[in-house]
Amino acid sequence: IKILAIESSCDETAASVVKNGREVLSNVISSQIALHTLYGGVVPEIASRKHIEKINQVIEEALKEANTTLEDIDAIGVTYGPGLVGALLVGVAEAKAISYATNKPLVGVHHIEGHVSANYIENKELEPPFLCLIVSGGHTHLVLVKEYGEYEIIGRTRDDAAGEAFDKVARAIGLGYPGGPKIDKVSKEGNKHAIEFPRANIDDAPYDFSFSGVKSAVLNHINSCKMKEEEIQVADVAASFQNAVVDVLVTRTIKAAKEFGMHKVCIAGGVASNSALRQAMKEACTKEEISLFYPSPIFCTDNAAMIGAAAYYEYKKGTRHGLDLNAVPNLKIGQR
Ligand code: ATP
Ligand code: MG
Ligand code: FE
Question: What residues bind substrate, as annotated (predicted)?
Answer without folding.
Answer: 134-138, 167, 180, 184, 274
